[in-house]
Write a structure and sequence with these properties.
It contains 13 helices and 13 strands. α3 runs antiparallel to α5, α3 packs across α10 and α11 crosses α12. It starts with a helix and ends with a helix. It is elongated, with a radius of gyration of 35 Å. Among the domains are: 63 residues, no CATH class; 62 residues, no CATH class. The protein has a 3-stranded antiparallel β-sheet, with helices on one face. It has a 3-stranded antiparallel β-sheet with strand order 4-5-6, with no helix packed on it.
Length: 434
Amino acid sequence: MSNVDFLDNVLVEETQPQILSQPNQYDHILPPQDIFLSYTDIRNLRRQPLIRMARDLIIAPVLLANWSVEAKEGTPQGIIDFIDNTICRQREKILKPAISGMVDYGWQSFEKVLEYQNGMIVLKKLKPLIPDYTELMVDTYNGKLIGLRQRTMNGTNRMYTHLGINKILVVNTDVEGTNWYGESLLKSAFEAWKAWKQVEQLSTKYFRKIAGSRPVVHYPAGYSLVDGRKVDNAEAAKSVLNMLEGNNGVIVPRQLMRQSDSSADDADAWSIQYLSDTVNNVSMFLDRQRYLDEQLVLALGLPPRSVLEGTHGTKAEAETHTDTAITLMETRHQLCVQQINEHVVDHLIRINFGEQFEGSCWISPQPIADTTIAFLRSLYSQMVSAKPELLDYIDADAVQSKLGVPYESNVAKQQAQMIVTSVNEYEQDITTGV
C-alpha cells in the first residue's frame, strides 16, 4: 500500500451509522431508539409533584447563568458585537426550550428563522419543534445528521415539511453512537415512577378501608325478635352495622359458653367493638414511598439530601452534594451552548463575514457556581469605586460581559472613557502646574 492510498483511507469515514435500528434507506429517517417510553409517558411523568420540583431545580440555575462572547485575538469587534446582539439577547428564549428538551426527551430541535436587517442576515428566532411530529434525517452511509422531517396534517392527508441541516438546530444529551435523539433524563425515573404509582394506589385503597375505626358487631348464634318478627341474628347484626357511621365494618358470630362463674348478664352475647390500625402498618407505606422519592430525585441528578428533608448528616455534607448537582447542571449547559456555537454562531458568521472568520468567536456560558462570579463582582466594584486609572490595566469590557452588567452602547462606553481620560489629564495638569 502506498502512502497516498494510506492517506486516502485515513481521510474517509468508513463505518456505518452507529445505532441499533438502521435508518430507512429511502427517506433517511432515523427511527426512534426507545419504543418503550413515549412522549406522552414523559409528559405524564413530569407532572408528578416531586419530579416537577426536581426538574425545575436542575433547569432554573441554568436559565440564570448569563452568556458572554469570547473571541480569538484579532477578531474584528463588529463580529463580536453582531453575535452578542443577535444571539445573546435571545438567551432565555433559546435556553429554556433547549434545556427542557434535553432533560425531558434527550433532544430538542429548532427551526432557524432568519431575516435581513441592515444588510445582514440575522437570527430572528429559534422556533422549538414538537418532538412528537418531528423525525431526524441522517446520511445512511455514515449516520451524519443532515436535516429533519416534520409531519403535518392537511385534512385527512399526511404531509411532511423537510428542513436541511443549515435550517435547523438540534441539541441533545447522552448521545450513543450516532443516535441523535439522545436519551431522556427522565427515563431513569420511569421505573421508580411506576412503582411510586403502585404504592400510591395501594396506600389509597388501604387508607380508604381502614380510615378511622372499623366497627365489629359480635352476635350470638340463633334468632331474635325484631319488631315482633323472628329474625336471624346474623341479619339483625347486619342491620345494626348499617346504622353505624362509616358502613365499613364486619359482623362476627359467636356462641356464648356458660361458665359456672358467669353472671346472668352474660346470656346477652351482643357487643360492639372498634378496631384501629397500628402505626407499624402505616409506616410500611411511608418507608417505601420515601425510598421511591429518593430514587426519583437521584434519577434527575440531584442528591436526595440536597432536596428532600434530611434526618442524618451535616450541613457541610449537604452543601457538598449540592455542588455535585451544580457540576452536572454546568456540564449540560456547556454541552448545549457548544451545539449552539457549532450550528448557529458559526453559521451566521460564515454567511455574513465569510468562512475565514468561522470559529473566530463563540458564546461562553457563565459558571453556575458563584466562586468566579463573586470574584469578578468584587473586582468590578473596586474598579468603579477606586481610582479611574485602574481602567488602563483591567479589561472593563470583559468584566462587564462576564457579569452581565448592562451598558447602553459602544458609543456610550467610548464617551465615558473620554471623560475619564479628560479628568486624568486635568488632574495631571494641576499637579504639574501647567
